[in-house]
Amino acid sequence: MRILLVFSLLLCQVVHAAGGAPPNVSAELRRYGIPIEAVAIDVRPAESGKPLLAINHTRAFKPASIMKLLTTQAALELLGPDYRWVTRVYAQGVIEADVLRGDLLVEGSGDPRFAHEDLWRLLTRLRALGLREIRGNLVLDRRLFRNEPHDPAAFDGRPDRAYNASPDALLLDAKALTLLLQPRAVGQAAQLASEPVLAGFSVEPPMTIDGPCNGLRDQLQPKFSAQGLRFGGGLPATCGERELSFHLYTLDHRQYFGAVFRALWVQTGGVFNGSVIDGELRADARELTQWVSAPLASQLRDINKFSNNVMARNLMLSLVARRGDVPASSSAAVIRVVEWMKHAGLDSSTLVLQNGSGLAREEKLSAAALGALLQRAWQQPTMPEFVSSLPVAGIDGTMAKRFDNSPLKGRAHIKTGSLDDVASIAGYVTARSGKRLAVVAMINHPKANEARPAFDQLLTWVYEHY
Q1: Are the C-beta atoms of 153 and 159 separated by less than 8 Å?
Q2: Quick check: helix, strand or coil at residue 211?
Q3: CA-CA distances (angstroms) from residue 184 to 210, 214, 218, 281, 403?
Q4: Backbone dihedral angles phi then psi of residue 67, each to the nearest 5 degrees
Q5: 12-66, pLDDT tens digit by residue?
Q6: CB count in 10 Å sphere of residue 241
Q7: What single DSSP character describes residue 36?
Q8: Is the peptide bond before 453 cis (omega within 30 degrees of 0)?
Q9: How many Cβ atoms sit within 10 Å of the Cβ of residue 336?
């Protein structure tokens, strides 16, 4: 009986490795009309070894946000988990008493997570040094990254969405505005708080309206200009308190940084009436202070757990950014990643890389290549940093609400991806037996995102089967 059972298990593995999807997975795919040709699956031991389940795994598929796993692992190996970005502040002029008779210059380092709280701390340091008034301009040195053309509406016609922000050497808060909205009585203006505060940029609260809360962004009808934000629609009272983030696409990076700087400098008791301009660090400039970012390992958690696209794009450019060298470009970063893959023994033949975030319809990679990447990541000294950056099933990130009442809760670290016509997952599962498996699955089909239950069935099958 035991020999027969072992033989049956081996036969089952051979059948699946030969191309058949597990029964429950196949059932979900049929339910949504997804042909097997539109699906790629690669399941293999995390430590090493050949695929145990392989379906179309050598074909190039659109991966969506699981492409971030390639970018983040390359960064861990090329930059190191303790890599930090340093934003420097210089005086270009003479400081007399508490007055700078000249320009204040901020040099961008490409920090993916530079926030207004960090800028506030930087400015309080300047005030602690005795600087109160700036009688020149605020000069932003953003030359570390090449200024590449970017249309925030080009991807999906939603320029106000945070994921459509562009990378920048002096990226601040991903150029976002976060609103906390609280409805009042119908017919009254809603209570509103915004963060960060931007000088010269006003936000008019929406009116509280009656009716169901359904598609709040569309119900609000936000209207953006360079001077502010107003709403053509209203906030249904049934929505309760809501928090929404918008990409301020009507301001460029210089304008956004300048508006936040002016507001914070006044808050700290400073005086500034000059202009905010782009410029270059001069040889006679004197460094006053600097802001050192959180380490790369910490920033990876935001990138992978919450699928932050602009942070991933800044990170990829950082792979080739060097102070005093030619500005980092997307094309140079792509070449660097391909070179790293070849050095690491990873197959790049199916790779089409554009910005490293997966927010591109042109990006492609095979499930086999991603499976091999996951195996390599598991074998590296930085494995704990990489794995801990992935969403945990039923716990946090984009997997917080999945497998909440399942044995898989806390036992799967899975990055998710989603675009129109693309759905994907990639990461690690600790099976019931204790074995660790690397799992990659992608669907490229108009009903891809409807068929996500097939991924749930796959992860459950891996957990129970191995």
Answers
A1: yes
A2: coil
A3: 11, 18, 19, 50, 36
A4: -65, -25
A5: 343 344 458 999 999 999 999 999 999 999 999 999 999 999 999 999 999 999 9
A6: 10
A7: G
A8: no
A9: 17
